[in-house]
Structure formats: structure tokens, C-alpha cells
Automatic annotation (TrEMBL), chain A:
Chief localisation class: membrane
Keyword presence, Membrane: yes
Membrane topology: Multi-pass membrane protein
Protein name, as recorded: Endospore germination permease
Family label: Belongs to the amino acid-polyamine-organocation (APC) superfamily. Spore germination protein (SGP) (TC 2.A.3.9) family.
Subcellular location: Membrane
Keywords from the UniProt entry: Germination, Membrane, Transmembrane, Transmembrane helix, Transport
Automatic annotation (TrEMBL), chain B:
Alphabetized UniProt keyword annotations: Membrane, Transmembrane, Transmembrane helix
The organism of origin for this protein: Cytobacillus citreus
Protein name, as recorded: Spore germination protein
Topology within the bilayer: Multi-pass membrane protein
Cross-referenced InterPro entries: Spore_Ger (IPR004995), UPF0353/GerABKA_families (IPR050768)
Subcellular location: Cell membrane; Membrane
Length: 361, 506
């Protein structure tokens, strides 16, 4: 049923999870967390990471029961045909919505930092065109590129290490200034930048090997990302004083803008250029999830055919989200979607499938 | 669809009606052959008597070796007068045919046909003349050290060059005939114990399925069999160096040689094979690694530098230090064109110069040097049309692109620069990054004969990286590259036997 050509290895699964998870959040996360958790912001991101691991466990337990089905094909098996298809569509909407949120944020940041006069549509078309070129390929090709583009993460870490020349560790004290309650509240906010691990709902059946290995790979991938995020939050916290933090929305970029090498004066531009790789891979990952669903429902499993119009929908959605009010609306919707589709629903489905003893062949 | 049917049908009919028995009458046979070959003027015949029968020797004077016909056919037959023809003719290649319709074809292949009165059979004796040039070092693929021989236009000689280097019964040669009209001979070479059988079968099938009239350059065959003919990147490595072909054979790849062409085609290859040169293995490994890295860097320079220049000048001059900006800007301010136009003008001029340089005879070639160097380089800046930095950028691009040991990839690199330049002019650094991403995706997608084109980077295989960006010492390369999926990956464990065998060294 699943072609050998579209199988990927567990190592590739790890990079798939990594690339789906790192996205736009990395830029604004320190600012958001610091607003509630103060000096303990880095603890919040660790706690969020812990929560993510638990969610991954739930998703994995669900997928494990249907080892040769994607979410779109096992949903009807649990809930019945009609409801299952409806939920499948809801997932597609969620995925498409996520892509457009990522892209509209990306367009905002690039418009603010690099290309002030370039029209938004031009930038979006360029991004979507490139992403669609990859998203229409089979999983193996996508995974190959994801493995290579993960090297940008190393470069990003190295670039931020330069920031340690101007740190002041006292900025994070007192760590418990906000108290545990606030820290946990902040970790709730940190869950959203970490989304992307739900990719295992779709690609689980395409991964070779035993299910326990898949869990390990997915967890390891998300662990890498959590450590990266925590590192970046921590770095931002000790570089910028608590008074400055609330005013700067993208601390990482400000930090990089501050220092320079002999021949390259604007490190932030280099960072943003590398960041394009990360954004594009995340976009491709989400697009792939959505188009796999569309392909499953409309094109007999050929996700390639769904790519053009999926991209068009994303383009329209991202174009609408120019107004801050609409962006806010998007944000809130994404939060609700996320709770329902990534945490709530899988948990319910899991319980149901246990109770009804439903499992795939 | 109808056409296809008609073709199939007509093919079958033609085959059926084509068989004609050799006539007992000599005159009739002669007439038939003459008619079939349209009374071509270089068709010669000579009558002979043997076993009391009158006979006829027919051959093309342009294709057959007349000296040999005289020594190996005419003289023995005249001397013996009687006996068995097979035993008397002193030639390696002799066959009996009773199908008259096949004779014209064997005549144009340089064979000599022997007919006798009253006999319904013809002897075909291989008497092809061999006019070939000497084995010389290929001009466009020179190496400093190592072998200095190169393939020539004669298939058998080329096979000799390969066989001489691999004296192993596992080396297999398979002949093919491609081109309905030209009947070009191809040879497929592979190591039976190394090459992946699926690969060999796939190549065999694709070569067998080629349908066309004329096959001239190896580019014809390459285009017929490669997976992605519309990609900018070459997927089959062309070489005129036997040592290069042999090295790839021993990695489990397949080589295609064609008669009448000095180029060997190696497949499947990865992108990095185009940046490897036999020279890397003749110098010390540190030197070899350095030079190979240099070549790969030059690929990046050749495709990226003009775009980067345009992006930085047009969008983000602040990325450069202030002093540098002033220097560059002072030169640019006098130029009336935007950087993209400047770059395009200069790049196209460069391409024109290069092409002119290839076509011109070497005696006139110097003129190109003067026109290119002085007029375009110096005057264009003096006249204020192009800025100095742009001339430097374009010159750097050109030189870097010529570093590649394969002409195909060098041209591809320069063409790759154009879309990147346009993206840079539209979106600055962001545009370039998307361009790079697009190229990477494309490279990642490409597969030729089941091998990923950008292996071992995508998919990543760390062990194979040893001989990709760098060249590790040869004794540390104990495994063959994984990309052609060879039958045996391991080559040997300890190449430097003395290091492990010598217990007294402890």
C-alpha cells in the first residue's frame, strides 16, 4: 500500500520533526515568555518541552494502533465514516491555517527587517512557489532536504554564541520573581511556537522500523528543538535587561544587529537569510500534511495534485492577515485549533480506540 | 495511435519480404547488389576462378583494406586453385550467408563479399580498413601527473585502453546498435562483480529502446537515456580520459563508449563527480583535498558572486564596512545603469567572448584576447559604462567557472548565475536564499538511474563524505561510494598491510 519510494528512515523522521517544529516562534518567543515569567522564562520553555513530550507520547500511542494509516485514513475507522471524514477536513483546515499564520508572520518580519518596500504578495509568491516545488515531491525527497537544512540550526546557535561576549547573568535573577504560577502560565504560551510535532500523525506510516524507534526519533527531534529554544530564551534573557525586553519583539535579531565582524556588519541579515531555510521547511512540512489529506480525499492519494490549490488558499489567507486585528484573530484561532486538534482530539480518539478495541491491520 | 499501428504493421511486412536467397547466377547477384547500393561509384568487384568456378569479390574501396584483400583472399585462392574456401582464406572473421538481402548491409560495414557461380551461398569476410588517429592526451581534460592517453574515435582502441587497465575477467562489454540509418555501434562496459544488476538491466533496457535515425554525438545518447532531460545539471559524466572511466568502473558504475566518438559516458554519477579530477589522486592527499575544496568553492563563487554583489549594492550596502562601501560606491555612482543591467551586459559579453574563442582558429585567437582584455575590460570602465567592481566580479566568476574539470558543469554554473542575479535584483539577499533553496530542492529531487544526484550530501551518508568535499588518504577509503549501489561495498580493510603485519614495530 505504501510505496517503498516514499519510505523514510527513523533518522529522517527526527529531522522531519525538527524542521517542522522550528519556525517563526524562535524570534518572538523570548519576548513573549519574559512578559509573564520574567527571569524564569527559560524554565517555562523547558516545562513546555516536557508537555510536548507527553503530547508526542499520546500521538504516538494513537498512531501505533494504526501502523499503516495516516490520520486521514484511521479517523473514519475510529469514529465512523461521516464523522471521520469531517474531522479529517478539520485537520486539513488546521494545517492550512497554520501555514498561512507562519507565512504571514514571516512576511511581517522580512518586511520590517529587510525588504521594507517590497510588496507582500511578491514575497509570499516567491516563498510559496519555492515551497510548492518541494511539497509536491514524495516524502523521501522532502526528508533529504530537511536533513541538510538542519545544519542551519547549528549556524544559528553559533551566531547566537557570539552574544555571550556581552552578557549579564544577573538579569535573570530573581528566577522566581514571577512565581511558579506565572512560569507555568508562560509555558502554556510556549506550547505554540513548538507546534509541528503533530507531523507524526501524517508521516508515521511512512517511517521504517519498529514503533518504539519512531517514538525515540520523534522525541529526540523535539528534544533538540526544546533545547534550542531554551538556549535562545536564556541567551536573550542574559543579554537584555528586564526593562528593555518588553519593547523588543524579536530579541534575537536585535542581539545580532548589535555586533559585527570585520567584513560583515549586519549579522542579523545573515541570520534572517538562514532563517528562510527554516521557515520554508516548516511551511513545506505543513503543506505536505494538508495536501496529503486533500490528496487522500480527492485525488486517490496523490498529494501532488492538491498542491497548487492548497498553495493558493494559503496565499489568500496570508494576504488577508495584514491587519494586526486579523493577525490577532488568527493567533487566537490557532490556539483553539491547537488545543482541540493536537491535544484534545487525539486524547479522546486514543481513549475511544482503546475502549472500542479498534486498531489497524 | 493509428500511426503507431501503421508503423508496427509496415515494419513487420518489410521484415517478412526482405529475405531473398542468394541466386545461383553470379550475374543476377551482382545486379542485385549493384541495384541495392544504387551503383555507388566506390563499389568495386574483381572476378576470380576457384574450383573451376568463376567467382566474384565485391567490396567498397573506401571501407575495405585492399592490401589485406589482396594478401588474405586473392593470393591464397589463386595459389591453391582448389579446396575448401573456409580453410584457405586467412582471415579471423569469415561467415557464410544465404540471405542476399543482408549483403549490402555487410558491405557498408566494410566487409568483403565472396560469391561463386552456381553456389547459393555468399562468404562474408571482415576486411574493414582501420584509419585512426594516434592516442593522445585529451586537450580539454589535461592532467599534470598520471596517464596521458585519451580515448579516440575508434571503439576497439578505446576498449583496448580500458581492458588494458582492468585485466580482469569480470569486465564485461556489451555491444548495441543505435540509429536506424547510421547504425552507430555502442559498447556498454561494466564490472560483473561490482555493478548493480538492476542498474545494468536498466541501462540495457534504455539503450535498447532508443528509436532514432541518426546518432552523432554522445549528447544524443545521453539525452535519450537520462532521467531528467530538462534539468540544467548534467547527469552523465563525459570524459575522454581512460583512467577516469576505469576509476568509475571500479566503483560499480557503467561506461558507455560509442564508435566514432572519443567521449566515454559514465553513469550514474553524482554532482560531486563533476568536481573530481584524476589529479586529486596523484598529488598528496592534503594537496588534493585543498584543490578539490577550491573547485567546489569556485562553483559557489561562479554561481553566487554576481548575485551577491547585486544584492549588496542594491539592497543592503550596510552589510559591508563603511570604508569598503565608500570605495565601491564612488565607482558605481558614475555608471548610468542599475547593477543588474551592468551584470547582465558583462556576463553576456563574457559568454560571447568565450564562444568566439572556441570557434576561432588559434592564430586569430590572440585578437580575442586583445579585444576582450583591453577593449571590453579597460575601455568600458573608462567610458563610464560599467564600474570597476563589476568588471572584477565578472572576471572572478568567469575564472571560477573554468576551474571545473568538466566543461558541462562549468557552463551550467554560469547559466545558473543568471536567475540568481535576477532574484537578487528583485529581492536582495532574501531572493538569493530562495534561489539557493530552489536549486537545492532541485538537486535533491534529481535522480539518475536510481541514484540520488546530490549524494552523499542528500541523502546524507557521512562515510562517503570522505571522498566528496575532500580527498582522504587512499588507504582510508576502504569502502566504495554508496551511490551507485555496488554489489560489494567494502574494498579492503587494511591497505597498508605493513602497518598491521609488523609486530616488531611495537
Amino acid at each position: 500500500m505504501i510505496l517503498k519510494k516514499s519510505k523514510i528512515t527513523q533518522g529522517q523522521l527526527m529531522f522531519f520533526v525538527i524542521q517542522s517544529q522550528v519556525g517563526v516562534g524562535i524570534l518572538s518567543l523570548p519576548n513573549k515568555l519574559q512578559a509573564t515569567a520574567k527571569g524564569g522564562a527559560w524554565i517555562s520553555s523547558l516545562i513546555a518541552g516536557l508537555a510536548v513530550q507527553v503530547i508526542i507520547l499520546i500521538l504516538w500511542a494513537l498512531c501505533r494502533r494504526f501502523p499503516s494509516d495516516t490520520i486521514y485514513s484511521f479517523l473514519p475507522k475510529i469514529t465512523g465514516n461521516f464523522l471521520g471524514k469531517l474531522l479529517g477536513f478539520a485537520y486539513i483546515v488546521y494545517f492550512l491555517f497554520s501555514v498561512s499564520t507562519i507565512l504571514s508572520f514571516f512576511a511581517d518580519v522580512v518586511g520590517k527587517w529587510v525588504l521594507q518596500t517590497t510588496p507582500r504578495w511578491a514575497l509570499l509568491i516567491l516563498t510559496l512557489f519555492t515551497c510548492a516545488y518541494l511539497a509536491k515531491e514524495n516524502l523521501r525527497v522532502i526528508a533529504r532536504l530537511f536533513v541538510i537544512s538542519s545544519f542551519t540550526i547549528i549556524v544559528i546557535v553559533i551566531l547566537s554564541l557570539f552574544g555571550y561576549a556581552h552578557t549579564n547573568i544577573t538579569y535573570i535573577f530573581p528566577i522566581m520573581e514571577a512565581g511558579w504560577g506565572e512560569i507555568i502560565k508562560a509555558s502554556n504560551a510556549a506550547l505554540f511556537p513548538l507546534v509541528g510535532y503533530e507531523v507524526i500523525l501524517v508521516i508515521y506510516p511512512f517511517v521504517e522500523g519498529k514503533s518504539i524507534g519512531k517514538l525515540k526519533a520523534a522525541s529526540l527531534g523535539s528534544l533538540v528543538i526544546i533545547l534550542l529554544y531554551t538556549f535562545e530564551v536564556f541567551t536573550s534573557l542574559i543579554i537584555f535587561s528586564p526593562e528593555v525586553m518588553p519593547v523588543i519583539s524579536e530579541p534575537l535579531l536585535y542581539m545580532l544587529k548589535g555586533f559585527s565582524f570585520q567584513i560583515i556588519q549586519r549579522i542579523d541579515l545573515i541570520f534572517l537569510s538562514l532563517w528562510i531555510f527554516i521557515i520554508s521547511t516548516a511551511t513545506v512540512s505543513w503543506l505536505y500534511m494538508a495536501t496529503t489529506g486533500l490528496g487522500h480525499f480527492f485525488h486517490r492519494g496523490e498529494h501532488k495534485k492538491a498542491v497548487p490549490y492548497a498553495v493558493f488558499i494559503v496565499f489568500i489567507l496570508a494576504m488577508i492577515a495584514q491587519d494586526p486585528a486579523i493577525t490577532d484573530l488568527y493567533d487566537r484561532m490557532i490556539k483553539i485549533f491547537h488545543y482541540t486538534f493536537v491535544i484534545g482530539l487525539p486524547l479522546i480518539l486514543l481513549i475511544f480506540s482503546y475502549l472500542l478495541r479498534k486498531r489497524g491491520a | 495511435m493509428m500511426d503507431l499501428f501503421r508503423k508496427l504493421f509496415s515494419n513487420k511486412r518489410a521484415e517478412k519480404s526482405s529475405y531473398i536467397n542468394v541466386f545461383p547466377s553470379l550475374q543476377k547477384n551482382k545486379e542485385y547488389i549493384q541495384n541495392q547500393l544504387f551503383h555507388s561509384s566506390d563499389l568495386k568487384w574483381r572476378s576470380i576462378r576457384f574450383n573451376q568456378l568463376s567467382g566474384l569479390i565485391v567490396f567498397f574501396e573506401s571501407l575495405s583494406d585492399q592490401q589485406r584483400i589482396q594478401n588474405e583472399i586473392i593470393r591464397p585462392l589463386e595459389e591453391k586453385k582448389e579446396g575448401n574456401v573456409d580453410a584457405i582464406i586467412a582471415s579471423v572473421d569469415i561467415a557464410k550467408k544465404s540471405d542476399l538481402s543482408q549483403l549490402p548491409q555487410s558491405l557498408v560495414q566494410g566487409n568483403c563479399v565472396l560469391l561463386f557461380e552456381g553456389t547459393a551461398e555468399a562468404y562474408i569476410v571482415g576486411m574493414a580498413a582501420e584509419n585512426k588517429r594516434n592516442i593522445v592526451e585529451p586537450e580539454n581534460e589535461g592532467a599534470i601527473r598520471g596517464a596521458h592517453d585519451g580515448f579516440i574515435e575508434h571503439l576497439i582502441t578505446n576498449l583496448y585502453l580500458v581492458r588494458k587497465r582492468i585485466e580482469n575477467p569480470s569486465l564485461v562489454v556489451r555491444y548495441y546498435q543505435v540509429g536506424k540509418a547510421t547504425k552507430t555501434k555502442l559498447a556498454l562496459l561494466y564490472m560483473q562483480n561490482l555493478a548493480n544488476p538492476d542498474l545494468v538491466e536498466e541501462v540495457d533496457q534504455r539503450l535498447g529502446s532508443i528509436v532514432m535515425d541518426t546518432t552523432i554525438s554522445p549528447g544524443f545518447i545521453a539525452e535519450m537515456i537520462e532521467d531528467n532531460p530538462s534539468s540544467l545539471f548534467p547527469q552523465i559524466l563525459f570524459t575522454e580520459r581512460p583512467d577516469r572511466a576505469v576509476a568509475h568502473l571500479m566503483e560499480g558504475r557503467v561506461v558507455i563508449l560509442s564508435d566514432g566518438d572519443a567521449t566515454a559516458q559514465i553513469l550514474p554519477v553524482t554532482f560531486f563527480a563533476f568536481y573530481q579530477s584524476p589529479d586529486d589522486y596523484h598529488s598528496r592527499w592534503i594537496v588534493g583535498s585543498f584543490i578539490r575544496l577550491l573547485r567546489l568553492v569556485s562553483f559557489i563563487i561562479a554561481s553566487l558572486v554576481p548575485a551577491l554583489y547585486i544584492a549588496i549594492i542594491g539592497f543592503h550596502p550596510e552589510i559591508l564596512p563603511v570604508n569598503l562601501i565608500f570605495t565601491v560606491k564612488s565607482s558605481i555612482d558614475k555608471v548610468p545603469f542599475p547593477p543588474i543591467l551592468e551584470a547582465l551586459l558583462m556576463q553576456i559579453t563574457l559568454e560571447v567572448l568565450r564562444e568566439a574563442g572556441v570557434r576561432l582558429p588559434s592564430r586569430v585567437g590572440q585578437t580575442i584576447g586583445i579585444v576582450g582584455g583591453l577593449v571590453i575590460g579597460e575601455s568600458v570602465v573608462r567610458a563610464g559604462l560599467i564600474s570597476y567592481p563589476m568588471v572584477i566580479v565578472v572576471a572572478l566568476t568567469a575564472i571560477s567557472s573554468f576551474v571545473a574539470p568538466s566543461n558541462e558543469i562549468s557552463t551550467a554554473t554560469r547559466i545558473l548565475g543568471f536567475p540568481l542575479m535576477i532574484l537578487a535584483a528583485m529581492f536582495g539577499l532574501i531572493g538569493i536564499m530562495f534561489g539557493i533553496l530552489f536549486i537545492l530542492i532541485h538537486l535533491c529531487k534529481l535522480e539518475s538511474f536510481g541514484t540520488a544526484y546530490f549524494a552523499p550530501v542528500m541523502p546524507l551518508r557521512i562515510k562517503d563524505l570522505k571522498d566528496t568535499f575532500t580527498r582522504f588518504p587512499i588507504w582510508s577509503l576502504n569502502q566504495r561510494p554508496h551511490d551507485p549501489h555496488p554489489k560489494r561495498v567494502n574494498q579492503e580493510r587494511y591497505s597498508r598491510g605493513w602497518v598491521h603485519d609488523d609486530p616488531e614495530k611495537e
